Amino acid sequence: MKVVGIAGSTRREGNTRRVVEEALAVCRREGLETHLIDLADKQIEDCRVCLYCRRHPGQCAQEDDLGAIYRELKTADAFILASPVYFSSVTGRVKALVDRVGWLSGSEGRVFERKVGGALVVGRRAGHIFAFSELNNFFLHQGMIVPGSSYWNVAFGREPGEVGADAEGLATVRNFASNLAWLVKKLAQ
After folding, report:
1. Of 73, 96, 164, 181, which one has the fewest beta carbons inside 10 Å?
2. 3-state secondary structure of 51
3. Domain spans of the chain?
């Protein structure tokens, strides 16, 4: 059973990656295989809505890093999408990923349906809930199962490392990851 965590920040060693690593560490302790994908060094173009994927299921006309990420997500039992808050929303790179994997999934008959997924959001002060909702709307649209936590899966921090001081945020991330791992194992029974 595998969980993929996607860190959607342009900062390679930033707070978003830290919360994904925290969640994946819990999943590993629960006996799940994990894989981290950091979007900081990935090239992902916006969806052109060219509908190439409708004529060629599971394939995108654009040649960038999205294809390999999509294939990785298809093999996962669960995945976590994490983004910093950019003006009360997710990063452009995360939005491009969501748009394109959503189209690709649909072209192949909703490949993410009944998989487990959930969002993690990190921001300085505000906008968390809008970004969190945006990501969870993707999971729900795809027919995925979204586990809860002890609070919304948000953490506070701006400068790299600041999220480490948000004890409640990190506890929420760990509880979410524990619930995600439990659900993945239950669905596998």
Report:
1. 164
2. coil
3. 2-188
Q: Is 60 left (phi over 0), alpha (psi -120 to 50) or beta?
A: beta
CA angle 15, 44, 24 (to 5 degrees): 35
C-alpha dist (Å) from residue 141 to 57, 78, 101, 145: 19, 15, 12, 10
In this structure, which amino acid lies at residue 138?
F
Amino acid type, 120: L
Cα 134 to chain centroid distance, Å, stands at 11
CATH number of the structural domain 2-188:
3.40.50.360
Closest by CA to 23, choosing from 95, 67, 107, 80, is 80
Contact 62, 48 (CB under 8 A): yes
Share of the chain above pLDDT 90, in %: 98
